[in-house]
């Protein structure tokens, strides 16, 4: 049985999360839509985008497509370093308070209808996943 959520409490927690992350989300790159993402380690993200400038277009497009499935969840942009494969890539996290099952039920249609068709545009330097508040 799914737990009933208080939408006002969820909105307050989401806003608090956004405010905490915006304090460090100063992005020197003006072409990045920093108003659409909370950015963890903005300097590292900016350097990575400077290395792979083709990611800018995709980063500008992604939020609109996510909003069709997650209309209110904040988005976090961070640089992820995979220690096993020594790979780096940008990670867009859809930060949600939904249960894993509920979030996946919304994420999977987004993945199937848009992301899988566009993932190669990011040359596998950009991933989108769920994050939990």
User: Outline, from the CA principal axes?
Assistant: globular
Strand content bin: 15-25%
Structural class: alpha/beta
N→C terminal distance:
21 Å
Provide the descriptors you would attach to this structure in a database record.
133 residues, alpha/beta, GMP Synthetase, Chain A, domain 3, four-stranded mixed sheet, 4 helices, globular
Describe this structure in words.
With 133 residues, the chain is α/β, with parallel strands linked by helices. It has a single domain, classed as GMP Synthetase, Chain A, domain 3, CATH 3.30.300. It is 44% helix and 20% strand. The protein has a 4-stranded mixed β-sheet with strand order 1-2-3-4. β3, α4 and β4 form a beta-alpha-beta unit. The two termini are 21 Å apart. About 5% of the residues have low confidence.
Please render the helix and strand layout as text.
Layout: H1 7-22, E1 38-39, H2 42-51, H3 55-67, E2 75-82, E3 87-96, H4 100-118, E4 126-132
Parallel strand pairs: 1-2, 3-4
Antiparallel strand pairs: 2-3
Brief synopsis:
By secondary structure, the protein is α/β, with parallel strands linked by helices.
């Amino acid at each position: 049985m799914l737990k009933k959520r208080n939408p006002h409490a969820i909105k307050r927690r989401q806003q608090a999360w956004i405010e905490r992350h915006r304090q460090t989300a100063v992005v020197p790159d003006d072409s990045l839509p920093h108003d659409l993402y909370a950015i963890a380690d903005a300097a590292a993200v900016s350097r990575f985008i400077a290395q792979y400038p083709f990611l800018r277009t995709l980063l500008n497009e992604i939020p609109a497509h996510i909003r069709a499935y997650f209309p209110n969840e904040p988005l976090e942009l961070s640089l992820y370093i995979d220690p096993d494969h020594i790979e780096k890539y940008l990670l867009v996290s859809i930060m949600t308070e939904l249960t894993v099952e509920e979030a996946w039920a919304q994420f999977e249609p987004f993945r199937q209808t848009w992301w899988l068709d566009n993932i190669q545009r990011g040359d596998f330097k950009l991933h989108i996943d769920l994050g939990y508040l």
